[in-house]
Amino acid sequence: MEENSIEMISFQIISNVGTAKSLVMEALSAAKSGNYDESEEKLKEADQYFVEGHKVHASLIQKEAAGEPVAFSMLFMHAEDQLMSTETIATLVKEMIEMYKKIERIN
């Protein structure tokens, strides 16, 4: 498998955003326990992985914009789905963490 093949790129996206999604869920768990410092650290770490996954994805968009054909692949479609669902989950988790903080202040 060529280093920059669609399969390799797909696996790089899946790996990075999968790690990001796991860290986001760990951040939520930490916040649920009231450990907001740990929660923030997990979110920062998750952002780093998400950015790496996004960079790999952007490289394909740049290739196609430059006129290089990008082959369709179910694996790549799955990678894009993971990228977008992780972004959505991260956004929702950040909102949930803010709710935990507000609830804690009220009680």
TrEMBL record:
Its cofactor is Mg(2+). The modification Phosphohistidine is found at residue 78. The keyword Metal-binding applies. One of its GO terms (molecular function) is transferase activity. This is PTS cellobiose transporter subunit IIA. Mg(2+) binds at residue 81. It comes from Halolactibacillus halophilus. Binds 1 Mg(2+) ion per trimer. InterPro entries: PTS_IIA_lac/cel (IPR003188), PTS_IIA_lac/cel_sf (IPR036542). Keywords: Magnesium, Metal-binding, Phosphotransferase system, Sugar transport, Transferase, Transport. Pfam families: PTS_IIA.
